[in-house]
Amino acid sequence: MKVLLIEDDADTADYIVRGLRERGDLVDHAATGRDGLFLASDGQYDVLVLDRLLPGMDGLQVVKLLRESGVEAPVLFLSALSSLDHRVTGLDAGGDDYLVKPFAFSELTARLRALVRRRPLNQPDAELSVGDLTLNRLTRQVQRGGQTIELQPREYRLLEYLMQHAGEVVTRTMLLEHVWEYNFEPKTSVVETHMSRLRAKVDRPFAEELIRTVRGAGYVLAPAG
């Protein structure tokens, strides 16, 4: 899943971001309503997690503006405001679910999965396919030719990004920014190491190679021919 978290409490945000990323999810974080509105309007997210009480612009205003601008990604409100009136107000404003703090991380992820499953069928990318390779973003299952491929979280995120850009050359810098979320060039071969491991699982057991190196440019995932 690609998740946008809009949460001003640093400890809560760190807890959610770290937990989701350990599962292999892609997560962006904004600490204010205005920053969250900017990211949500510009990015394509599977689901938004939004605090009710935010500095500058509260969560209700953010959701109303997003819905007015045509953003249809499901919204999970996360708040210490626990009364029935608060929950109803959040849902009436355009939210799809409401989780009261404190919460169990397992319940948060279960609710996010449920929201993504309920997305309208015309929203793309619930399942990515390239040739005989498929990646289901809801179940996190990867298969090639009907054979299940077990991936580590970072390998999953790497493959997901490559499949989202199938047929395009993806540079090392792009991978560092979007998969590792680095904004600098590390003096390691982290990309090459993980790419080698991913190719060993996705390509090596099969007759056709899908992931290819473009010398001096990066990598491309596409069927041969």
UniProtKB/TrEMBL annotation:
Residues 2-116 form the Response regulatory domain. Gene3D superfamilies: 3.40.50.2300, 6.10.250.690, Winged helix-like DNA-binding domain superfamily/Winged helix DNA-binding domain. This is Two-component system, OmpR family, response regulator. The modification 4-aspartylphosphate is found at D51. Residues 125-223 bind DNA. Residues 125-223 form the OmpR/PhoB-type domain. One of its GO terms (biological process) is regulation of DNA-templated transcription. SMART domains: REC, Trans_reg_C. GO terms for molecular function: phosphorelay response regulator activity; transcription cis-regulatory region binding. InterPro entries: CheY-like_superfamily, OmpR/PhoB-type_DNA-bd, Sig_transdc_resp-reg_receiver, WalR-like, WH-like_DNA-bd_sf. One of its GO terms (cellular component) is protein-DNA complex.
